[in-house]
C-alpha cells in the first residue's frame, strides 16, 4: 500500500501537518500538473518536491543555482536515509559519469543539478534514459529576463521538456512580480497556468526606513535596543571588516563574512553565529541563502539594495520563528544617487565586453579555434588586477558573455578532496604487497570510506595523516603517486569558482553580443531602482508598499512599520492635546499665543494642527481673536 504525503512527512521529517500551500502544491504535483509555487523565504519550499517524489516511482531532478545549498540539502536527505547526489561545476568528467550511472541503475531518489551542467551533452543524454518523476526548479525567477537575479544557464531548462516531455515541472521562488510569474511559466512551457502563492505580508516584521546622517550610531542604537542576534548587510568586503570592528569596539560580539574568504573560514564564522557565539554577522549579500536561523531579531541594511526583490529576500531572514523582528534600512541622499550611477557598471558597452573576453582567452593561453569544453579555476580579483579592470564592471561583462553562451561561470564553493580506487580488490592487494610504503594509507582509506571502489568519495587528508602518523604533505604526495600509477584517482579540494569555455576561441572583434538584450535589461534595471526610490518615499505603510510591488492587493496597514508607528503616535498625541485644549478653554476663553504656550503636550506644529481640526469640527469657536470651547464634551 502506497504511503500518503502526511505519512511520508511524519516518517522522514517528523512533522504532523503541512504548512500553508504545501499540501495543495503536493496534490497538483502528484496529479502531474506543471505548478508554480511562490513561497517566502523559510516557507518550506523543498518539502513541496521532496515529499511527492518519495511517493512516486523514479527520480526527482532538482535544479538550483546555489551549490552550497544543494550540498546542504543532499546531506540532509542522506541523514534521513534518502539517497541523493549533486552534480555541479568543479567535478571531473569521470565523477559526473559515475554519478549519472547511479541515477540510471542505482536507487538514487534526488539528483541536484547546477543549471550550467545542462550545457553538457553527457548529462542531457543520460537524463533521457532516467525514470524521472519530477523536475523541481528552485529559485525559478532566475529563468526570467525580468527577474532580479537572471541567470543565463537557466535558459537551458527548456531542454528538459524535450528530453522528458511527460514529466511535470515544479517551479519555486520566494520573489516574483506578476511579469516574472508570467515569464517563468512561459519559459518552462507550462501546459496550463497553475500557480499558488503565499501572501508577501509578514505579519511579525516591522519594516523600518530612516534617512540617517550617522548610520553607524543609528545601527548601534538599533542593535542595543532590539536584543537578540542579527545580520548587517553592506555592499563590499572592506565594509564588512570596518563595521564588524566598529561593533566589537562598542562591546557587540560581531564578525564579518564575504565571498572572498576561504570556505573553512566561512563555515566557521557561520557556525559561530548560528550557535549564538557571535551575536551579529556583518556581510555582503553572499551571506544568508539557505540559512534557516529562526531567532534573528533584526536585519540592518547600511547600503541600499539593488532591487526590492533582493531586499525582501534579505530582510526576510529576520523573524523565522514568527516572533517580532525588524528589518531596518538606513540611507542618505548620496546612497540614492549612487544607486542610479551603479547602473552604468552593471551594463558595460560592447567594446568592454569584447575586451574582457580577449583578456580571458589570453589569461588561460587559449589558441584561436581551441578551448571548447575547457574548465579552469578562476580568481576574478587576480584576473581584474592583472589587466587593470574594474571588478564590478568585469562581473557584469562575464554575465553577458555567459548569456550569449561563450562561457559558463559557477559560484565559488568548497569542494572537498575526492578519491576512488581504479583497480579491483585483488589487483590492489598485489600493489600493497609490491609497494609496502602505500600499505598503511590504503588500509586507512578502506577503513574510513565505504564505496571507494565504486564511486568517488570525499576524503580528508588531515584525518588520514593523523591515522597513519605521517605529515599532511606526505599523504597528499602519496595520493598523487597512486594516481600517477593508475591505481586510483585523486582529486584535490578546491574552493575556487569554475570557468568553462562553451565555444572555441574567436577573434574578439567577431564576438557576437546581444546589444538589444543589454539595452532591455538596462531599462528594466532602471525601473527596479525607481521602485526602491518609491519604497523609500512611501508615506502610508511599508508592508503594503511591498505587497503592491509584487502584485498583491491589500488595504490593511501593518501597524508595525516606521510609518504606521509614527502615525499612531501622532494620533495618540493629538488626542491628548485635544483633551488638554478642552480643559483649558472650558476654564476660560484664550488668545492663540497664550493657548499654545499653556499646552504641555506635543510640539507647536502638532498643537496648531490639532486646534485647526477642533475648529473644523466646531468643537472650538473663534470670535474676536478669542478661542472658546463650544460646550460639547470632546470624546
From TrEMBL:
Residues 26-194 form the Helicase ATP-binding domain. It catalyses: Couples ATP hydrolysis with the unwinding of duplex DNA by translocating in the 3'-5' direction. SUPFAM superfamilies: P-loop containing nucleoside triphosphate hydrolases. InterPro entries: DEAD/DEAH_box_helicase_dom, DNA_helicase_ATP-dep_RecQ, Helicase_ATP-bd, Helicase_C-like, P-loop_NTPase, RecQ_Zn-bd, WH-like_DNA-bd_sf. SMART domains: DEXDc, HELICc. GO terms for molecular function: helicase activity. PROSITE patterns: HELICASE_ATP_BIND_1, HELICASE_CTER. It holds the Pfam family RecQ_Zn_bind. Its EC number is 5.6.2.4. Residues 215-364 form the Helicase C-terminal domain. Keywords: ATP-binding, DNA-binding, Helicase, Hydrolase, Isomerase, Metal-binding, Nucleotide-binding. Belongs to the helicase family. RecQ subfamily. This is ATP-dependent DNA helicase RecQ. It comes from Sphingobacterium tenebrionis. The lineage of its organism: Bacteria, Pseudomonadati, Bacteroidota, Sphingobacteriia, Sphingobacteriales.
